[in-house]
Every structure is written in structure tokens, then in C-alpha cells.
Write a structure and sequence with these properties.
Layout lengths: L1 H13 L5 H13 L5 H7 L4 H13 L3 E3 L5 E3 L1 H10 L21 H13 L16 H13 L7 E5 L5 H8 L4 E6 L2 H14 L4 E4 L16 E4 L5 H14 L7 E6 L6 H13 L2 E12 L28 E9 L18 H7 L2
Parallel strand pairs: 3-4, 3-6, 4-5, 6-7
Antiparallel strand pairs: 1-2, 7-9, 8-9
Helix pairs in contact: 1-4, 6-7, 8-9
Amino acid sequence: MELESLLKKAEEMRGYPVSFESFVRFLGLLLQHRGADLWELIRRSDEYIRVMMGLFEALHNEGYVETDEEGKIFFSRKGEKLVEELGVKILDKGLSVDSGKYGLSLPPRFKEILDEMRRIYTEVIPKDNFDQAPLLPEASVYKALYVAQRGDLSGKSVVTVGDDDLLSLIFGMTGEPKRVLAVDIDEQVLGVISEYSRKMGLGVDVMQSDFRLDIPPEVCGKFDTFVTEPPDTVDGITLFVSRGVQFLKKEVGKVGYCGVSTTACPPLGIVQLGKNFAEMGLVVSAWLTKFSEYPPVRTELKHIEVPDFYDPFYPPSRVWYVSDLVRLKTTNSTKPLIKGIFKGNISDYDGDAKRYR
């Protein structure tokens, strides 16, 4: 009965169901990483953030965990007893999220690009009304390297579907694509891209477009590869991938890359995305978990309040928010799921939490 009450309280904290399995996994994560703070636990887990926040707050309020003056989390005696009674084990002893980007190592040219991008990135000012949150420059350069090593850059026509990450400039700096187009709603982002493309002789083209209003027909069916890091909602991801499909040539084997965060998108939302990709006739050829890192301050927390007792440790100083990198390939039945004007809300995180329970 005590466990049922605890799970119910965890659910009430963020209004999202919390299963016993998620509860035990959370305890196992705490056991494995004793003395970690909340941000480190979120980074190392594949649980939905509302589940993580609800469990953390409920366990703290009921005296199972304690935090010290640095925000590090420890089991209380009551918590240690609970772990022992449940027989909780340490999870994934050999798993590390700090072992590099799937074995990728930056070649000298990409290291030079990274040095340049660290400076240019300071000129992009993220805007909440566009749900912007650029990746860390390191993450963007590693993503570009992966795209290149999969053969999806050299000699290709490449389009970035939204580009506050400035991937179009990175692609241009490699000298590999035959054409690069950056498409974004934000004039300031496009201005930065245009300025540096001109200064560095990269030949990157830009186009302003609100993806909710479709894309101009003259650029449809012109590209070999698209790359996007959309809002982490089902509608946002589906819309941006649909527009990416519209940009691609109508040939089998064209490729799209999409960022998906299992931290911000609920589990049933991830299931729905799989269905949407399948309905679009897209093959998921790779799903690289926790590939891309963001700066510590992320806009998602405006939708998930940090518990009052943890306010002194927000904003976090360490990287905690990451996204998976999904590689999609076209087939002879590929088509966009969303065509024409889209009237939904592509940044409705609360709506996703209600719809995909």
C-alpha cells in the first residue's frame, strides 16, 4: 500500500502516469550514481522528464531521498531500507554516456571547423517564440561528421530544415556538398548564416520559411539529404520531417536526419512517431541514443517546473539535455504526412503529455 501511495503521489506531481517499472529503474539509477544531481540523473536516463521529476519530488517529500548543499541526491535511511526490501540492483554497469560519439573522432579539418563555430555560435540569440534551442557547437560538428561518414554529404544537395544549430555553415566549411540551403523562420539566424557564408566564400543559400505554411514549390524535390532538429513534440517532429520529405528528390534511398528527445517526448509519443515515419514510407536506418548535447539551460523546463526545494540548483551548470539522432531513408512509397498549411501547435509539450499517456 505504501508503494501504491508513493506512485500515486509521483503521478500527481506532474500529472503523468508513473509505472512501478519506472520507479524501480529510477531507484536503480540513484543507486548506481550515488551523489549525482538531478541533471546528471536525467541525462543518464531514458525516462520521460515528467516521470523523472514526479518520482524525484515524491521521494524527497516522503523522506526517501535527501539533497545536500550542492544539490547532490542521496538515499536516506528510509530510502536505503526501501531499496533493500525491493531488491533493487545497479543498472547498466558498463554503459556510459561519456564515451564519445559512437567512436567518432574529429579529423583535423573538423577540429578547425569546431574552433570557428564556437565563435560564430555566440551570435545566435535563441527565441522562445520559435522554440529555439541550438545544440552545443561540438554536438553540431559531430553530427556533421556522422552525416559525412555515412556518405550523405559529399557531392550531395543538402537542406537544413530549421537551422539555429548553424549546420549549413558546418556543411559548407567541409567543402563536400555540391549545394547547401538553410531554411528557417528566423531572419536573425539566416542573417548570421548569410554573413559568414559570404565572408568565408561557402556559397550557402538561405531561405526564410514558416513550415506551418508549407514550402515554396520551386525547392520541392531538389535535395538528396535533409537535416532537422525540430521541437520535441509529436506534431513538431512530424511536421519538420514531412517538410524534409518534400525537399527530397522523389527517389529511393534519399536520407533525412532528425533529432528526437525521449526526455521531452512521452513514450507513447515516440510510438506515434514510429507510426508516422512508417506511414511516410521512411525506413529508420539508425537510431543513435543520446547523440546530441544542448547547453544546460533548455526551454523545456518552462513546461516542467523544478521542485521548489531544488530551485537553488537551477539553472544547471552541466549538460543534461540530449537528443537521439535518427537517420531516415526514403522508399518508393515515401510521401509527406502533412501537406499544405498546418494549423496545430508544434510546441505544445503539455498537450503531448495529455494526449500520449
